[in-house]
Amino acid sequence: MYGYEITQKVKEITKGKIDISEGALYPILHRLEADKILDTKKVYIGKRVRKYYKITNSGKKAAQKITAELNDFIGTLSLIFNEKKPLYEAD
């Protein structure tokens, strides 16, 4: 997908809960490209160039690792906030 297409897909998947501006997205895409998380392909449309982004195998592994870490963190927060006994009792 190209940048604008990514912003629209994220908005669609999250039902509008995440609305990434292109100005915020492109620096992230460039960093992920530099880190070899994304591959890019330039397509010329008339005089314009459209850059398509695709996740690499190492990018997929990194995403799985980060997702597992976030799920673990959320699980830990659930333990804290769903505690039956209060963590702190006021006098």
From TrEMBL:
Pfam families: PadR. Gene3D superfamilies: Winged helix-like DNA-binding domain superfamily/Winged helix DNA-binding domain. It comes from the Bacteria. Residues 1-64 form the Transcription regulator PadR N-terminal domain. This is Transcription regulator PadR N-terminal domain-containing protein. It comes from Flavobacterium suaedae.
